[in-house]
Amino acid sequence: MTSRILPLALTAALAGSLFFAAPASAEIQRQLELDVQYDVTALSTATGAETVLDSLLAQAEDACSYARPIAGADRLDRACAAEVVAKAVQGIGDAGLTEAYEARFGQAQLFASLD
């Protein structure tokens, strides 16, 4: 099995607050650098492209999760995860993977996430 690592760097805006008294609209900017790993050989089939897409989504969700300081529960920044997956799909540049992404999330989602 051949795998590759795609380095991604992006700035994610995480909405949240450290204290209940802080405004709900407060945003914390953070730089996110992520080495996305994927199986190159899996991209040769439609099923494999779906598997790679699932893997990218799982990696993005892991990278974009954070703990809420007061409640202690893990939270997922869905906008961050969507951006990571969209940039990974674009960076990999495989037609089958792009097709799988567009079938699941829509073409407009891919291009909106890249702005």
Strand order of the largest sheet: 1-2
How do the SSEs run, as a string of H and E? EEHEEHHH
Largest sheet: 2 strands, antiparallel
The assigned structural class equals alpha+beta
Averaged pLDDT: 78
- Give the end-to-end Cα distance, rounded to a whole number of Å: 33 Å
User: Beta-strand percentage?
Assistant: 25-35%
Number of strand segments: 4
Which regions contain 5 or more consecutive residues with pLDDT less than 50?
Answer: 12-25
Helical content band: 40-55%
Whole-angstrom Rg: 16 Å
Multimer state:
single chain
- Helix tally equals 4
Q: Characterize the overall form.
A: elongated
Provide an overview of this structure.
This protein has 115 residues and is α+β, with helices and mostly antiparallel strands. The protein contains four helices and four strands; from the N terminus they run E-E-H-E-E-H-H-H. A two-stranded antiparallel sheet has the order 1-2. The chain has a two-stranded antiparallel ribbon with strand order 3-4. Helix 1 crosses helix 2, helix 1 crosses helix 3 and helix 3 crosses helix 4. The longest helix is centred in the middle third of the chain and has 18 residues. The chain is elongated, with a radius of gyration of 16 Å. About 12% of the residues have low confidence.
